[in-house]
């Protein structure tokens, strides 16, 4: 590994959300951005590690919003492609409480769905310390899936570790289609984050420890099975770890998994031990639960100190 920073490759969207119930009843909305890969890029940057995001955006105000927010967070966007023939995707979110959140995505024909192998930033991959992907982007379109595989294969050829958050979204594709694609993608990766439900989607069975071991046999050297409020289990470099959660009062679960991934990858990029990677990941997830919003909930180092300070 010759690089030092993160390169996240995939989809980003503009987001409009309300905290006052359904959109039809709102008199104002909050404006932000969404997209798993973009959130991880911001999360890593907040923790003081070099970070960049690459993908395809429309030549429109939502696309300009995405770029502006990423740049404000110190995320490099020099590898972003602008598509003048398609709009930036949108996410509209209604929020009542932690148990009643609804998101609607407007992606059909969006720039993100037009992502293709020609968009893969090969030079940026060569300079990265890790390439991060998600299981959402391959579900956008056939060309987006090919782009994700092309990025992973380029990283492998260059000796750059590949990270994957296996995040299955039923709204994007059928389970049987997703299972085949994501199974093959896992085999190209070095670091895999996955929920136990998604692991079973891939045809694996057993308790979380058995799922982690089975995934490691597919090729990844680092597998983290995320269990939500039950914590996580991991198989890292042949050793097993249990990852408890920090006890916090949850106000918003959106973005918690991205925060976990960002915490782990930030520490991985700084050469931290497996135990520290996992502790920081768990702390980032816990902190994100206490703050509403995907972007606003991602912590920096000083905020993590408050959460992890001995009591």
From TrEMBL:
Q: Entry's Gene3D superfamilies?
A: 3.40.1190.20
InterPro entries, alphabetized: Carboh/pur_kinase_PfkB_CS, PfkB_Carbo_kinase, PfkB_dom, Ribokinase-like
Q: Per the database record, which ranges form the Carbohydrate kinase PfkB domain? A: 7-300
**Listed GO MF terms:** kinase activity
Q: Which domain of life is it from?
A: Bacteria
Keywords per UniProt: Kinase, Transferase
Question: What PANTHER family does the record point to?
Answer: CARBOHYDRATE KINASE PFKB DOMAIN-CONTAINING PROTEIN, HEXOKINASE FAMILY MEMBER
What protein family does this chain belong to?
Belongs to the carbohydrate kinase PfkB family.
Q: What is this protein called?
A: Sugar kinase, ribokinase
Organism, by scientific name, is Saccharomonospora glauca K62
């Amino acid at each position: 590994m010759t690089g030092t920073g993160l390169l996240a490759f995939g989809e980003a969207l503009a987001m409009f959300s309300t905290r006052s119930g359904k959109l039809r009843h709102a008199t104002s909305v909050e404006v932000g951005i969404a997209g798993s890969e973009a959130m991880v890029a911001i999360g890593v940057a907040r923790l003081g590690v070099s970070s960049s995001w690459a993908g395809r955006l429309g030549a429109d105000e939502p696309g300009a919003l995405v770029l502006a927010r990423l740049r404000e967070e110190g995320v490099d966007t020099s590898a972003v492609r602008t598509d003048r023939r398609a709009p930036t995707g949108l996410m509209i979110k209604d929020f009542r409480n932690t148990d009643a959140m609804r998101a609607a995505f407007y992606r059909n024909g969006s720039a993100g769905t037009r992502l293709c192998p020609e968009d893969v930033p090969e030079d940026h991959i060569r300079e990265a310390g890790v390439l991060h992907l998600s299981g959402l982007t391959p579900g956008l379109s056939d060309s987006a899936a090919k782009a994700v595989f092309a990025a992973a294969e380029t990283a492998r050829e260059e000796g750059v570790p590949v990270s994957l958050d296996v995040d299955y979204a039923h709204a994007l594709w059928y389970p049987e289609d997703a299972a085949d694609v994501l199974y093959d993608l896992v085999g190209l990766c070095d670091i895999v984050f996955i929920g136990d439900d998604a692991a079973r989607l891939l045809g694996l069975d057993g308790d979380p420890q058995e799922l982690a071991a089975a995934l490691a046999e597919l090729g990844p050297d680092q597998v983290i099975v995320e269990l939500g409020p039950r914590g996580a289990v991991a198989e890292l470099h042949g050793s097993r770890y249990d990852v408890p959660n920090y006890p916090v009062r949850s106000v918003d679960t959106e973005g918690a998994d991205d925060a976990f991934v960002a915490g782990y990858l930030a520490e991985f990029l700084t050469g931290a031990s497996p135990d520290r990677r996992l502790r920081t990941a768990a702390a980032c997830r816990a902190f994100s639960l206490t703050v509403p919003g995907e972007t606003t909930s991602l912590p920096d180092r000083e905020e993590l100190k408050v959460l992890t300070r001995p009591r």
